[in-house]
Amino acid sequence: MTVTYESDIVAWAEEQAALIRAGRFDEVDIVHVADEVEDVGRSEERELASRMAVLLAHLLKWRYQPARRGTSWQVTIRAQRQAIARRLARTPSLKADFNDPEWSEIVWGDAVGKAAEETGLKDFPLACPWTREQVMDLEFLPE
């Protein structure tokens, strides 16, 4: 190895990929490659959680600030729903997170925090008042 993981991760990754493609497995930095592969999965999980929190925060804003409803909120809600659906279709194993009550509780907390920060409101429900089907329904907007 000419580049270390700690000194330049991009150059290291390119070198590791080249070694693997060349079949020079005995030269591969197996420990760090394994860490990076696991991190890809965690990154996908973070992306799903982030998108869901943004979606839920916008649904909260829609519900609790009716006078401020607008096209941009609708666009964000639709875009997040579509992105979440695509991510779940491309990575079916994420459905386990998506359906996990603990995960949902954490994401709801993030969504409430975002909505509170953006609206100045504080009295949001302690748990998500909508079903997963409602949240993902392209036509659903809470009244």
Q: Could you walk me through the main structural features you see in this protein, from its secondary elements to its overall organization?
A:
With 143 residues, the chain is mainly α. The chain contains six helices and no strands. The radius of gyration is 20 Å and the shape is elongated. The chain has a domain at 43-136. The longest helix has 35 residues, at 30-64. The protein is 67% helix and 0% strand. The chain has helices at residues 9-21, 30-64, 71-90, 95-98, 101-119, 132-136.
Unreliable segments (pLDDT under 50, ≥5 consecutive)?
none
Series of secondary-structure elements, N-terminal to C-terminal = HHHHHH
Instruction: Estimate the strand proportion.
Output: under 5%
Largest sheet: none
Determine the N-to-C terminus distance: 60 Å
Can you count the beta strands? 0
Cα-based radius of gyration, to the nearest Å: 20 Å
Average pLDDT: 95
Total helical segments: 6
Helix content: 55-70%
* Overall form: elongated
The secondary-structure class comes to mainly alpha
Task: Give a brief outline of the structure.
The protein has six helices and no strands.
Q: What distinguishing features does this structure have?
A:
143 residues, 6 helices, mainly alpha, single chain, 0% strand
Helix and strand topology:
Elements: H1 9-21, H2 30-64, H3 71-90, H4 95-98, H5 101-119, H6 132-136
